[in-house]
């Protein structure tokens, strides 16, 4: 769940207009997010590249010129990397397969960094 959505839920929870329907909708949303994240995490849990580096190591070792990424950007880049790898895992595509064509961890970090600028 994005930080923006969390802030929105907090703001809504302080509103006088919250209802049981609102609470049920938020709970359903949170449960769906948890189920999705569990399935995604399972698909890429323990994934490493040919050098034995895990996903967090791959994200944090990307070095680019310019302003360093913030902790929030690194978290979001990691989440994006996990989602893309989980989607590829359905077709047997691994991090090493991506490495043959592109620096996927670097691209995720660049995209998120650009989004925040």
Write the layout of secondary structure elements.
Elements: H1 3-13, H2 20-44, H3 55-60, H4 71-89, H5 95-101, H6 104-116
Helix pairs in contact: 2-4, 4-6
Question: Can you put this structure into words, describing what you see?
Answer:
The protein has 117 residues and is mostly helical. The chain is built from six helices and no strands. The two termini are 21 Å apart. The mean pLDDT is 82.
Oligomer: single chain
Report the mean per-residue pLDDT as an integer. Answer: 82
E-strand count: 0
Global morphology: flat
SSE string, helix = H, strand = E? Answer: HHHHHH
**Roughly what percent helix?**
55-70%
The biggest beta sheet reads: none
Cα end-to-end separation: 21 Å
The stretches of 5 or more residues where confidence is low (pLDDT under 50) are none
Alpha-carbon Rg, integer: 17 Å
What is the structure about, briefly put?
The protein has 117 residues and is mainly α. It is built from six helices and no strands.
């Amino acid at each position: 769940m994005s930080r923006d959505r969390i802030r929105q839920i907090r703001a809504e929870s302080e509103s006088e207009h919250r209802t049981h329907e609102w609470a049920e909708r938020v709970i359903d949303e949170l449960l769906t997010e948890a189920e999705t994240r569990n399935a995604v995490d399972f698909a890429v849990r323990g994934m490493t590249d040919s050098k034995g580096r895990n996903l967090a190591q791959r994200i944090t070792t990307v070095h680019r010129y310019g302003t360093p990424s913030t902790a929030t950007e690194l978290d979001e880049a990691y989440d994006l990397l996990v989602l893309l790898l989980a989607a590829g895992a359905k077709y047997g595509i691994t991090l090493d397969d991506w490495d043959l064509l592109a620096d996927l961890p670097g691209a995720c970090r660049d995209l998120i960094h650009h989004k925040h600028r």
